[in-house]
Specification:
There is one protein chain. The protein has 555 residues and is an alpha+beta fold. The chain has 3 domains: 19-157, Jelly Rolls (Sandwich); 190-357, no CATH class; 379-554, Heat Shock Protein 90 (2-Layer Sandwich), CATH 3.30.565.10. Helices cover 52% and strands 20% of the residues. The protein has 13 helices and 18 strands. The protein has helices spanning 2-14, 155-188, 195-215, 227-252, 258-275, 280-304, 310-326, 329-378, 380-396, 398-418, 426-444, 465-476, 519-532; strands at residues 20-24, 28-31, 58-70, 77-82, 86-91, 94-99, 115-120, 128-137, 149-154, 424-425, 447-453, 460-461, 477-478, 484-493, 497-505, 507-508, 536-543, 546-554. The strands form 5 sheets. Strands 1, 2, 3, 5, 6 and 8 form a 6-stranded antiparallel beta sheet that branches. Strands 11-14-15-18-17 form a 5-stranded mixed beta sheet, covered by helices on one side.
Amino acid sequence: MLYRLLFISLLAFSSCKRDVLFETGLTKYHVGDNVHWSAKNYNDINWKYNRGRTGNKVFWARINVDLQQRLETIGPMGVQVHAFGAYDFYWDGVLIGHNGKPLSTEAKEIPGTEAAVFMLPDSLITPGKHVAAFRLSQMSNGHDLRDVQLKLQNYKPLLRDPLIITAMVHLMAGVFFIASLYYFLFYCYSKQREYSVLIFAFTCLFFFCLLIVEYVKYYVDIPYTQFFIRLKAVGILTFLIASLIPYYFSIQLGFKWKRQMLVLMLGAYAVVFVIQYGHYDYTSMLFSLIMWITCLVTAADATRRKVKGGAVVLTGMLAIPLVHKFALYDIALFISYTIIVTCMLYLHVLRARVLEEQYESTLLLSSRLQLELIKKNIQPHFLRNTLTSLIDWVEESPKQGIQFIKALSDEFYIMNAIAEETQIPVSQEIDLCKKHLSVMQFRKEIDYVWQDEGILPDEALPPAVIHTLLENGITHSAPLENGRMYFKLKFVTTAKQKKYIFETHARNRETYRDQEGGNGFKYIRARLTESYGDQWTFTSGAAHHGWVSVITILT
């Protein structure tokens, strides 16, 4: 709603009728200083249209104005002057005002602003021929020989309209600032840190800065000596925005040639910068054009591949030329950027929905595998074999049979306690593994030895992950010559990652059925994804001493 209101309002401002009809002649210049040159009837036939370099000298400029028609009810008339330097402004020989203070024999120049507005007396605005004269000095930026230009309009709109537009633009800037802040926090505190979110946050921040820098000229007096600082800032911000937006679209729309596109785009920016150096507005316009072409190609490719959201982005890109056709360039530029950022936000929403669906799917898979893992421990053949071994132990050694029953009970108790947890302390996971080894030692009459190294008891990890690796080691390994099997869990931590290394020291009976599949490995991957998103790796493979599995968690 805000963007629609802004769009309509800005179009209204850009298409309003002129309340003063006038024509101006070419500006004439003459180096020297004589107040009589401000007179309406002064003969300036020998003055030059090319001002040339004036150095540290005072010079004059005159503009013939033909005031053709003016609405009688519009109030005082104003003049908006664009010029570099400090000057005194005369209208038909009458001193109207000052912008800065020109150089004189008594004092140094006080720089004026690039744009200034003056109110003309009613007695001097009759239809017909008039002369605007300027006594100027330009002590700085002497290389910039820009002409003195003026525009006649109702005085109140000259002051009011820029402030109204600035207020609306600043409302829009506030929206982008809040959006950038939100997505910066979202990125920092998200488990799944996607660079596209960070790019979007920076784009909103740079666009906020661009809006502020572009319109600060309407309420902050910027001396002409510092005029180019703002233009350079606008150019830098436009370059950053024009670089980030196409890259964001290429990521979200799955563009195949991201790097090639980025290299070509930056190369085009470099060529434009070198060729158009010093032409700040034109450079920014070319940057925006290159960005638009790149985004259009990316969106068209995504539409061809039927990527979700590609058609919406393509429609937004095609709407931008229409905006430029019906609105002034400055206004159309910001409306175009708003359309682009809205398309970026739309793609982000689509991506967030996909991630939410993936997360829900992971939760469902984790729950299903969790139930399957519990069922595996109480399935008929497990119970039958365990109870058969239990009967034998009770008959042969009641004391050992009681220990067997207690170990089995403790394992089931821990398994039931952690069934609904997302993460548990590693110390509890080790207790579960030791209880399982005790049960399996009674069942298979093999001496299982547990070892751990560098363990931090309070470190958390998904439940039954190490237990699953232990089960795989028991199932797919045979004892060493001494009748033992060794299991060792090592924990290594650095500033960037945490690593669990689980080693099985035994003879490999056979290669695991499918290193990418199997309920055990599926369960481990599902649990890791549930807890850490994509910030983890899992490898498992044969080693000279048996088998090694490594879980790496990125921090």
